[in-house]
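pasting Oligopeptide/dipeptide ABC transporter, permease protein for the record, 301 residues
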Amino acid sequence: MTADATDPRHETQTAAEAPPRLRDRVVGLARLSPTGAAGLALIVLFALLALFSGVLMPHDPVASYTDRILQPPSAEHWFGTDGNGMDVFSRVIYGARFGFGIAIPAVLLSVVIGVPVGLIAGYRGGYLDEVLMRFFDGLRVFPSIILALAVVAATGQSLFNVILVLGLLDSPVFARVVRAEVLSLRASVFVEGAVAAGNPTWRILFVHILPNAIQGALAQVAVRAAWAVRISATLAFLGVGIQAPTPEWGAMIRQGAEFMVTGQWWVGVFPGTALILMVFGLNLLGDGLQDVMDPRRRAAK
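structre below
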């Protein structure tokens, strides 16, 4: 007799089979790209630190204990205290919020600017393509850190300005990637069919071409997020951008560098390690995304 779909035993059996299927998918992704899985694990760890920092921090990250200045790591202060008597462990955990709080908006802004420009420039071609690409090339001519330093110093040292500058400076990367894909797609049969059917230009670009041209840009998201985290920390280290006592890793490393020569290594080493691990994880994740989205890379490996 065929089992009834409404039979509670059938529902229990189906529910019991669901977790193994999900587990098999996760294992399959890990086998497909071990580097991507390792990077994802690191990023998930930092994401959990950022989300639950209020629970994980043993002390207020900006509270100053004047009687505990530059204390080495101990049971009370796991990563020691800095030159202001602030708990380094709590500040490192809270700093993960600024890592994601800068990387995610900056990359989203780059995508919002770069992808439409790449679509329009690649599809239209001609003078419009030349003007748009030459403007974006101009943004890439100067070293990014020098240009970011100049713009942030001129516009003001705020989180919003840092995100705005990083998003603008990195948008040419996405524009170039999308434009290259559009150039190869605009003569495709499905595009010609969409034009012959009388579709407006915006529909051809965003409905027919974009879904086929976006994979390369998506594969760059994690790598460019790593770039944004690194550049924002560099700006803070150089004294431009987010400033102390805000618990941002670059600013913490800058303060720690002053005490390194006198032996208080913990002030700069722990935020520096967190920065390295987050950038490393994002780069690994970006490499994994490229493996997943590009079969030729998988075949080469």
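The chain has one domain: 46-64+78-300.
The first helix runs from residue 8 to 32.
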